[in-house]
């Protein structure tokens, strides 16, 4: 293990998985004085690579998922200080942007859903302002005149996940080992057979090899335009969903499809059907996309749990190393990274985690697994 911990205060921790969640946990653990190693053959190359970076507890809220909304709100509140600290320590601007998100409806049925979402958010104490057709057009003149109404979520933010990974890799330095690792009762085994013993193993390997986590494929398209919308747009057009997230320099992230599929399939590949639907819906929302340049088309698997909430906390282990799960973040890995890291750090230190995490302990499911079944 590396010798970075403050002597006498730290535990040795291996984080398996270097996506935004694993890396943020590692950063928080290092700052708490632990001796941390992250193992991932391609850090930031999984779901994080496709993520649009919406920090959108309101925009992603769904009926029956109020505990997830509260967890998201808590994590959103942690983002500004996390982003400021990370940017200062790494000298990388992680592009955190406030400015809210707009919900947009393409027809009366879509508008009915926007209104139901507004009632849900209002009841949960999330700021939301309904917008009529005219107000919508005034707020975002680039929208198609066919849009019938919507709402503004002024507190939603967004960040650039790829740059967040770059910043986290800069501050973690050689604590990140570019190797696949398999959990073992006393630590992990690397793919070349090397064993790393650890007091704690944090399992954060996304859609790959975590108990009760299923892959949910998503496709995104990145384009560049000279006429970018000012804030995040989340639209439902005749039942089809699309979001558009503005980045620097006129880049837009257009997402995302959702497809359940079996684990052992081939690596995620974008499909003609998925990408065509996405672009058609985005163009119907923002007609000026007609002349936008396509920069990239990407597919990745989101890690979904049986109830689509994350799994954060202890899982059974056969040996001396404690195993903590930080997985199943599904559509909200970027948003939930800071609160997940705070919880993992609290568990390692034997402190109480933020109470919003209580609803997401892994033991709400049967987690029958053997170490060797994981992360392969
Ligand atoms: N959070 C957006 C998505 O998963 O597509």
Total domains, how many?
2
What's the multimeric state? single chain
Order of helices and strands: EHEHEHEHEHEEHEEEEEEEEEEHEEEH
Associated small molecules: glycine
Radius of gyration: 21 Å
User: How would you name the CATH homologous superfamily of the largest domain?
Assistant: FAD/NAD(P)-binding domain
Tell me about the biggest sheet? 9 strands, mixed
CATH topology of the largest domain: FAD/NAD(P)-binding domain
Spatial shape: globular
Number of helices: 8
Strand content: 25-35%
Q: Average the pLDDT over all residues and give the rounded result.
A: 92
CATH class of the largest domain: Alpha Beta
* Percent range of helical residues: 25-40%
Q: Calculate the terminal CA-CA distance, rounded to whole Å.
A: 22 Å
CATH architecture level-2 label of the largest domain: 3-Layer(bba) Sandwich
Class by SSE composition: alpha+beta
Contiguous low-pLDDT stretches (5 residues minimum) are: 1-8
Count the E strands.
20
Q: Would you write up a description of this structure?
A:
There is one protein chain. This protein has 376 residues and is α+β, with helices and mostly antiparallel strands. It has two domains: 12-51 and 161-212 and 307-375, FAD/NAD(P)-binding domain (3-Layer(bba) Sandwich); 101-154 and 214-302, 2-Layer Sandwich (D-Amino Acid Oxidase, Chain A, domain 2), CATH 3.30.9. 28% of the residues lie in helices and 26% in strands. The chain contains eight helices and 20 strands. It has helices at residues 20-31, 47-50, 66-90, 108-123, 133-139, 161-172, 272-285, 333-349, and strands spanning 12-16, 35-39, 54-55, 101-105, 129-132, 149-153, 157-158, 176-177, 181-184, 187-190, 195-197, 200-203, 214-224, 232-237, 240-246, 251-255, 259-260, 293-304, 311-315, 322-327. The strands form four sheets. Strands 4, 5, 6, 13, 14, 15, 16, 17 and 18 form a nine-stranded mixed β-sheet that branches. The chain has a six-stranded mixed β-sheet with strand order 8-2-1-12-20-19, covered by helices on one side. A three-stranded antiparallel β-sheet has the order 9-10-11, with no helix packed on it. The longest helix is centred in the N-terminal third of the chain and has 25 residues, at 66-90. Mean pLDDT is 92; it is low at 1-8. The structure holds glycine. Glycine binds next to loops.
């Amino acid at each position: 293990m590396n010798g970075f911990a403050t002597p006498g205060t730290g535990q040795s921790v291996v984080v398996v998985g270097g996506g935004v969640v694993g890396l943020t946990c590692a950063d928080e653990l290092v700052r708490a004085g632990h001796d941390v190693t992250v193992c991932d053959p391609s850090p930031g190359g999984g779901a994080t690579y496709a993520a649009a970076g919406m920090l959108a507890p309101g925009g992603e809220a769904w009926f029956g998922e109020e505990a997830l909304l509260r967890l998201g709100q808590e994590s959103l509140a942690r983002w500004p200080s996390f982003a400021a600290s990370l940017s200062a320590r790494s000298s990388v601007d992680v592009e955190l942007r406030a400015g809210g998100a707009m919900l947009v409806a393409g027809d009366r049925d879509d508008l009915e859903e926007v209104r139901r979402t507004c009632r849900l958010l209002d009841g949960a104490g999330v700021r939301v302002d309904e917008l009529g057709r005219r107000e919508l057009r005034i707020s975002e003149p680039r929208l198609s005149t066919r849009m019938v109404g919507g709402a503004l979520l002024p507190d939603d933010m967004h960040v650039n996940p790829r740059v967040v990974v770059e910043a986290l890799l800069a501050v973690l330095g050689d604590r990140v080992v570019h190797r696949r690792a398999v959990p073992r009762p006393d630590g992990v085994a690397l793919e070349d057979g090397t064993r790393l013993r650890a007091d704690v193993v944090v399992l954060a390997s996304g859609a790959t090899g975590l108990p009760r986590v299923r892959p949910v494929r998503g496709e995104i398209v990145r384009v560049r335009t000279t006429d970018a919308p000012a804030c995040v747009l989340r639209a439902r057009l005749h039942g089809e969903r699309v979001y558009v997230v503005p980045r620097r320099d006129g880049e837009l992230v257009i997402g995302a499809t959702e497809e359940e599929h079996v684990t052992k399939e081939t690596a995620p590949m974008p499909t003609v059907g998925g990408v065509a639907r996405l672009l058609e819906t985005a163009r119907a929302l923002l007609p000026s996309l007609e002349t936008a340049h396509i920069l990239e088309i990407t597919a990745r698997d989101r890690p979904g749990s049986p109830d689509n909430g994350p799994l954060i906390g202890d899982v059974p282990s056969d040996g001396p190393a404690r195993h903590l799960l930080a997985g199943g973040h599904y559509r909200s890995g970027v948003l939930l990274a800071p609160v997940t890291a705070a919880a993992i750090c609290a568990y390692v230190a034997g402190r109480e985690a933020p109470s919003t995490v209580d609803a997401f302990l892994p033991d709400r499911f049967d987690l029958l697994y053997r170490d060797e079944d994981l992360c392969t």
